[in-house]
Amino acid sequence: MIEMRVARLGVDSTANTYVLVLRELHGPRVLPIWIGQPEAESIVMELQSVVRERPMTHDLVKQIVLGLGATVRRVVISRIERGTYFAELQLQRDDALISVDARPSDSIAIALRTGAAIFAADDLLVTLEDEDQPLVPPPIPDGDRSTGTDMSPDELKAYLQRLRPEDLGKFMP
Fold first, then answer.
1. What pLDDT score does 93 carry?
2. Which of 7, 29, 90, 102 could bridge 135 with an S-S bond, Cβ 3.0-4.6 Å?
3. Could you give phi then psi for residue 118, rounded to 5 degrees?
4. What are the chain's domains?
């Protein structure tokens, strides 16, 4: 297993969906994962430290895990079958390690909120054609925020839709 970090989130215009790009912590390889809009919004909100008045689903899961006396130890993206990635949340409670089947996008949104490490199977990673291309999450321009720390769902959706495919690099789904 290779430790990963969130490198970029963008839009794949050919599939009209969002792509989350993970990059290995100590190397150039990446793992692009096509995800849904709600998960993309949740991930962007956490990356940009957007605070909502009420907890969203991934915030709620975090509070449930912590409320039950557990911690999210790590996320493991283990395989792909018929175009679908599989992941698990590994929770630690006392001496017990509990593995929970979950989608990678949900797992990553929860990992970002809890500070848990993200790992992927080595055989899932690919190398970019241009290894010098920077992969960093794009900042939300100040003018796109309704306040200093909050965006409406419509503003967040508009921000995600403005991301260009060129922001992602060259990937084949």
1. 96
2. 7
3. -115, 130
4. 2-131 (3.10.690.10)
